[in-house]
Amino acid sequence: LKVTRIVNEPTAAALAYGIDKSDQEQKIMVFSFGGGTNDTTVMDFGGGVFEVLSTSGDTQTGGADLDKAVMDYVVDEFRSKTGVDLTSDLSAMARVKEASEKAKIELSTILTTDIDLPYVAMKEGQPLNLHLTLNRAKLEQLTRPIVEKIRKPIIQTIKDAKLTPQQLAKIIVFGGQTKMPLVQQFIEDVVGKKPERGLDPMECVALGAAIQGGVLAGEISDIVLLDVTPLSLGVETLGSV
């Protein structure tokens, strides 16, 4: 197996969205928010050439952190009602984790959901059931502080590209967490434009990578991709000058 080229996920997403079909030069921001990380890329397209101007991200913030916020809330609510701490029971916590992620996903399309875990613990020889109703407003309250962490990388990426948010023609988002209304609204608030939502955010990277494969194989000849390193680089001298 020979690795011919590595393409960044945001770059692949831009290819999948067919930005190359545009006749006009435009600046595009691509935002990724997956299970473990988030990335922002600003690129310029014109004359069949994709040029990545800047890219940045947070490798410590992702969907798992949103799941953890919901899990902590569920565990705290169960403890306050029953006096039982589930964190010492690995089996129970695995069930709570699965149910919390499921509830988070459901609340992207509905306003209220129930978390039901029968026989999740024992107290004085009696089984305990966990039942909790979670609504979208509460989910957003729990996860907003985590989502807020992505503001700085987005602003830094636009700054590194020497642009302002007003100069961005389109905003493309992908990754499972971008299905959340909170995340979509947050991106719109930070950048001032609604994100494009034409493709499945779980598939567009693979589609874009396939297009890049077509370029390398010679099947597509009207696209040129100029990429950059995935993190901003700098030089520090002695004394932090």
Description:
- It is a single chain.
- This protein is α/β, with parallel strands linked by helices.
- The protein has 2 domains: 9-62 and 147-226, 2-Layer Sandwich (Nucleotidyltransferase, domain 5); 63-141, ATPase, substrate binding domain, subdomain 4 (Actin, Chain A, domain 4, Alpha-Beta Complex), CATH 3.90.640.10.
- Helices cover 38% and strands 24% of the residues.
- The protein contains 7 helices and 7 strands, in the order αβββααββααβααβ.
- The strands form 2 sheets. The chain has a 5-stranded mixed beta sheet. It has a two-stranded antiparallel ribbon with strand order 4-5.
Can you give keywords for this protein?
241 residues, alpha/beta, Nucleotidyltransferase, domain 5, Actin, Chain A, domain 4, 5-stranded mixed sheet, two-stranded antiparallel sheet, 7 helices, 7 strands, 38% helix, elongated
Task: List the topology elements.
Layout lengths: L8 H8 L9 E8 L4 E9 L2 E10 L4 H20 L7 H17 L5 E12 L2 E10 H12 L3 H10 L9 E5 L6 H11 L12 H14 L6 E3 L15
Parallel strand pairs: 1-6, 3-7
Antiparallel strand pairs: 1-2, 2-3, 4-5
